[in-house]
Amino acid sequence: MSAQTHSREWVPMLAGLWLAVTAVALGLRPPLPVDETRYLAVAWDMWLEGHYLVPHLHGEPYSHKPPLLFWLMTAGWHLFGVNDWWPRLVAPLFGLGSLALTVRLAGLLWPDRGRIGALAGVLLFGAIFWTVFGTLTMFDMLLAFFALLALQGLVAAARSGRLTGFCVAGVAMGFGVLAKGPAILLHVLPVALAAPWWLPRLVWAPAVFERGRWYMGVGLSVVLAVVIGLAWALPAATAGGEAYRDAIFWGQSAERMVDSFAHARPVWWYAAVLPGLVLPWLIWPPLWRAALRARGLLADGGLRLCLIWFGTAFAAFSAISGKQLHYLLPEFPALALIAAWVLTEGTTTAETPTRPSAQRTRAADRWISGGPAIVAGAAIMAAPNLPLSPRALAVVAEIEPVWGILVVMAGVMTLVFPLTGPVRQALRMASISAFVVLAIHLAAKPLLAKRYDLRPMATQLAALEQDGKTIAYFGKYHGQFHFLGRLKRPMVSIGQEGGDTEAFLRDHPEGVVVAKYRHLPRQAHPLFTYPFRGYTYAAWPAAALIANPGLGERR
């Protein structure tokens, strides 16, 4: 079957699954505190105050992330007007672009094996972790996109011998710097520097590998990336002040790699969690059988490139102090390409097995693939009647378990409709993953609305602001109400330094203080309260805190 025929089959279905998952996720899931709401607040401040050079959060320079995502959010508002959907669609669009670039990179590395690209795209989307995070307003999908684009530039330069590919790689790395800082270099440079190990093993490798010319091109790419990054960073550092300059040049890159208290985890943590992140492919029999019979993994240049890409980033992220699951997302295309190569190695173009043993194997595969889906869906539907802990039952009481039927249906379809060919079988598994993500969002809609949706409270705070009230937040404020309520004035953080609470109450005796509690105090009456996860937000009139010192402290 030709690559073109494969495209006619899998591209529309994969695009439809992406559209369904994205639409349901963004339509049913509110912006999640504190990360998504914080990034929306930074973009809102940029739009409202014109802080395009130095991003701000509640009146202060925001140094934790570069500005590209915020620029793209506000660009959409210039085109479509201020809305909720565009800023949350930016990252998913880059995720979709990453799927396309993964397919394209496979075509560059293995032009004689078109099935690898189709499989890689399906395998990448089918990883539940990738699919879920692809709907979140985060920076990692942008980083993955620009890493893929940079690697394509390097491969194109290796194939053509022209500087154009190196320029593409440099520009892509430069935008990667603007997306999430110098971390982009960790995803691209090891591959570029290790070219003598992988490039001569490609099927179209040049007869002679000119190391000097190659490394001059790599140097050009790095220079372009640095120039693009500094074109923003230097004027931003001047405008943002000394603290902001130190943060963007040191505090959010090298210092975080050396010692991070925010997400400090042991060196083995990624190795322990990675198997769960690659589900459902970890339990997919065709991949295991293909891996067991695969030979000559290190003989293929494309495989070597992917192994360097994944292995160096994995080792580096394991070694640094701060670790988050989504840091590995830019390496998932490498895993998808490796798995796709393994699945196609040694296969033929025959789509229908003729041996009875092969037919029995396919039947077992359907049960191993569809059976867990049926069990998982049935467990969701039966959750209210299962012997769960009181805490778990309280959560189950707030969901709609009937949507587990989607997962059951996906599993049953796997059993009833046998498919042949690795692309079709992988697409069926990816469909199960998509149905799982859809079922999770549909079932959790009431829970998300009750425990995570801060829009009703943000609307109440906006009404107070329109009445002329000055609002303060007791503790560290992450901007979780600003975009949701379209607040136009910074919310002062108090309770952080000695005397700041008293100063606010003295200067704003008619103001309002927002605080968060595990157990709501009873010695005064708040203006209103709002539940959030296991906490309760309360909005107090300043007079209540004046009469009850310490009322705002968390308890």
Secondary-structure-based class equals: mainly alpha
Helix content: 55-70%
Quaternary state reads single chain
Shape: globular
Number of domains: 3
Major β-sheet, in short?
Answer: 5 strands, mixed
Question: What would you note in describing this structure?
Answer:
It is a single chain. With 555 residues, the chain is mainly α. The protein folds into 3 domains: 91-344, no CATH class; 358-451, no CATH class; 455-547, no CATH class. Helices cover 64% and strands 5% of the residues. The protein contains 25 helices and 7 strands. Helix 1 (3-28) packs antiparallel against helix 4, helix 8 runs antiparallel to helix 9 and helix 18 (356-382) packs antiparallel against helix 20 (404-416). The radius of gyration is 26 Å and the shape is globular. The N and C termini lie far apart (65 Å). 43% of the residues are buried. Mean pLDDT is 88; it is low at 1-6, 348-354 and 356-360.
